[in-house]
UniProtKB/TrEMBL annotation:
Domain Glycosyltransferase 2-like: 5-124
Entries under Pfam families matching the protein: Glycos_transf_2 (PF00535)
Keywords: Membrane, Transferase, Transmembrane, Transmembrane helix
SUPFAM superfamilies: Nucleotide-diphospho-sugar transferases
Membrane-spanning segments: 260-283
Lineage: Bacteria, Pseudomonadati, Bacteroidota, Cytophagia, Cytophagales
Gene Ontology MF, one: transferase activity
Keyword Transmembrane helix annotated: yes
Name by which UniProt lists this protein: Glycosyltransferase family 2 protein
PANTHER family in UniProt: RHAMNOSYLTRANSFERASE WBBL (PTHR43179)
Organism this protein belongs to: Spirosoma foliorum
Keyword Transmembrane helix: yes
UniProt superkingdom: Bacteria
């Protein structure tokens, strides 16, 4: 039995996976591991390219673009290792982090899952990564910047405090190691999620099985957005901080974990913000002696985002199983 099964989801990223696996084989020592790649109908020569360099890789075809949760669940079902790792294709190892993480799970049975600190491509620690549910939920509200808003949201959605500085509420699915025995109790990833949010919801269930540790002395590089086609096209502003698919998934998570009330409050907030953002911009235009309707692209983009959220309203409200893909 392998010590570790590494599960990587592929969607048209053969070069990223080649680089990722090169780093895995270069730095991983003292453990026996297998690599499983689950392909989301890339419709290219990814398999031939990757297995030409790494023939021992076990390859699985989903047959359609199933997203993150369903593809990883197939990998988990097929894994033979006594520990399993969900690893993004756009990651690189920089040391023997895998063996170190396996050792933590082997020596601390009360730990349900572990991850490592994310580095950017320049090897600097990636800033502003969420580790609590409260941090995630507070970011969903579009309020004026400043300490007053921050204090209000912190009181409304406080963060937990742990004696262990490594303990967190959830771990990123870009690098998440656990045991099959934990998954058997917590359940697989929720397959209603297409992409994003599924690791947050899973973290809630994994956390019921034991502590979740973000190991501060372990690191890996996360390039991010390896297969995202719209990363460079999305202009982030204060009111348009969300990508549609990301937020549809996050709203589904809020509904599943916190119930109908929390979900309805968020949706009402987004709806009521539509006239607010228009009135605010018109007032700014009048103050600056410009035409009232000038430069409203940002406001119309926000309105379009909210319209997309409401396409999934009925399904999300009643928590219906499905495929929440934008």
């Amino acid at each position: 039995m392998p010590d570790l099964s590494i599960i990587i989801v592929n969607y048209k990223t053969p070069q990223l996976i080649l680089d990722c696996l090169e780093s895995v084989y270069t730095y991983t020592q003292n453990i026996h591991f297998e690599v499983l790649i689950v392909d989301n109908q890339s419709d290219d020569n990814s398999q031939a390219i990757i297995q030409a360099s790494f023939p021992e890789v076990r390859w699985f075809q989903m047959g359609y673009n199933s997203g993150f949760a369903r593809a990883n669940n197939l990998g988990i079902r097929e894994a033979k290792g006594r520990t399993i790792l969900l690893l993004n294709s756009d990651t690189l190892l920089v040391d023997n982090v895998l063996a170190n993480c396996v050792q933590v799970l082997d020596t601390q049975p009360d730990v349900a899952a572990v991850s490592a600190i994310q580095l950017q491509a320049n090897r600097q620690v990636r800033p502003n990564l969420y580790t609590t549910f409260g941090q995630m939920r507070r970011a969903f509200y579009i309020l004026p910047g400043g300490e007053a808003s921050e204090r209000f949201l912190n009181r409304l959605m406080p963060d937990p405090h742990y004696s262990d500085p490594n303990q967190v509420e959830w771990l990123s699915g870009a690098f998440l190691m656990t045991r099959p025995s934990v998954v058997a109790k917590a359940g697989l990833l929720d397959e209603s999620f297409f992409m994003y949010g599924e690791d947050v919801e899973w973290g809630y269930r994994l956390g019921k099985q034991g502590r979740l540790l973000l190991l501060r002395d372990q690191k890996f590089v996360h390039l991010e957005y390896g297969s995202s086609e719209d990363n460079q096209q999305h202009v982030v502003t204060h009111i348009n901080r969300f990508k549609s698919q990301v937020q549809v998934s996050q709203l589904l998570w809020v509904r599943k974990q916190y119930g109908i009330g929390a979900y309805l409050v968020l949706m009402l907030h987004y709806l009521l913000m539509i006239p607010v953002v228009f009135i605010w911009k018109i007032a700014v235009n009048l103050r600056d002696r410009r035409r009232p309707w000038a430069d409203l692209d940002n406001q119309w983009a926000y309105t379009k985002q909210v319209e997309i959220f409401f396409r999934f309203f009925q399904k999300t409200l009643f928590n219906r199983p499905g495929f929440y893909k934008v």
